[in-house]
What we know:
21% strand; alpha+beta
Amino acid sequence: MAKYTTRACADCGIRLPQPEMFQREDFVRVGNSKSGISIFTFLGALFGRKDSARAIGKWLWNSNQRNYNRKKTLWVCGECSGHKNTKIKKPSLIGKFFKFIFKLIFIITVLMAFLFLLVVFFGQ
Length: 124
Ligand SMILES: [Zn+2]
């Protein structure tokens, strides 16, 4: 039997062999481009440091892109990705089916009782 790399689900943390996992693309926010700027950078620019001036220039131009999203590939299990029905979902589906049947039986019973009453009162 071939052994696969196990992957941890990004949602529930379950560890499964890679073929049982699904890839999901997510966007993660990464740090801003201003982080390289400090008061010393400004002081440096004031004292004529070219690299400081360049850093400030970059910082000014990138001010609109303070936070940007980076695409990240996550591994999620079949249940979390929605590819597989969960063990919890299956009984609830059966439950829904039974609820529907009971409702149907109830409606039929009420209708029969109503028809019976109609026959009793107006049948003669
Ligand atoms: Zn999961």
